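Obj: model holo form, ligand = S-adenosyl-L-homocysteine.
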Amino acid sequence: MEEKYYALLNYGCQMNESDTEHYAGQLEELGYKAIADFHNADVIIVNTCCVRESAEKKIAGKIGELKAVKTKNPDVVICVAGCMAQKDGDKLIKKHPQVDLLLGTAYVNDFKQILLDYLAERGSKRRTRVYDDLTIHQSEFEGKMVRQSKFEAWIPIMYGCNNFCTYCIVPYVRGRERSRSMENIVAEIEAAVADGYKEFTLLGQNVNSYGKDFGEKDAFAKLLRRVNEIPGVDRIHYMTSHPRDMSEEVIKAVAECEHICENFHVPFQSGSTEILRRMNRGYSREKYLELIALIRKYVPNCTITTDIIVGFPGETEADFEDTLNLVKEVGFDAAFTFIYSKRSGTPAAKMDNQVPLDVKKARLNRLMEAQNINSLKCNEKLIGQVVEVLAEGPSKNKDVWNGRTRTGKLVLWPLEGKTYQAGDKVYVKIDTAQTWLVKGKAVDNG
Ligand code: SAH
Ligand code: SF4
Ligand code: F3S
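Output (holo structure tokens):
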């Protein structure tokens, strides 16, 4: 039989990366093999994101490129999946008639069957579109998965979001919160450990809400403690935490469990209580600072990272300065900073006083400048320390390897005649700090 190939073009967050690993697994179950160049593939999946306009523009350009691929090879199956497919539905097909299959965000585990049905009916039926149901529960997935990394695994623990922050499209394209059962999550992690995985990231839009749909109290803290006990699990990360729902129980679990890494990613979005209210975030600047103090009380050596939006509608210079001051006050290790992007269908898109782009850009620059100073300061604290690194691979200079600390910091060290494999644990004594990374030399033990 002739070989068949698939190509995956993934955009967006870790949730999408995880979904893409599920698509890859199902395609391999059908006998397809991965190919890097999508021009030579029989099935192409574009897994899309629509969280900001910039992401959508880039992806629309890529889907546009596939028109020529379809003209050259009319048999290729072009599938658009993910959040943009969910949001735009038939409109997307109208705009890009080269698309054969449109797959909403809740159908990930049904993909194999949907593709087989499509191929069987091809000719009589030009296209398949499935995106109307956002309530499908993906909990009991038992098929194959092709993970990108050989030692680090994404583990979805819940799907969807109930928060409806007024700027955000995610609740509309991912549906309501659905938690996976603890047994199912533990079984997936145990199977991954048996395959050699060591590092696990528990994924959800709001992991602190895990289990609320079962009516269970403190379910996320219980899940963390349970995963910590699985033999062979070395590092546990989780994202994303919502400051309103982050509980003392979760912070205690991080403090007490050996394998849960001591990084707290707590997006604050804005330092102005008035903007936070209009964002529907459910906490004030003061409450956020109390949370940071609580985290530092239980886990003094932790790192703290965040997400920030500048230029939310009505954001004044004073509001922005509240954000800037909060960044300086907390001294985050890293921050993902975004210019507010109008998402039609969300409440903020209809708000008055949209901030002009040049003002937003200038604020973003000032914010990044302040954060870069923080990042460098935090990294400088590592100088002279020996850090535990999981090796990832060679850097651009092949004589230098890179890897990450437990808190996710990028570390570079020279090979000095040694050989490493991805996933090796290496102890590195840090001698140089930069804004985005630290450097040092491998030493014998920790
Ligand atoms: N559920 C996660 C991640 C959501 S998307 C959370 O609540 O943190 C990741 C980040 O994108 C958000 O934290 C926010 O900072 C940013 N974001 C979401 N919608 C946006 C918009 N319309 N414009 C700009 N940034 C946005
Ligand atoms: Fe979007 Fe808010 Fe949900 Fe995060 S918590 S996905 S920002 S609505
Ligand atoms: Fe993007 Fe969807 Fe993730 S909109 S950020 S891919 S949930």
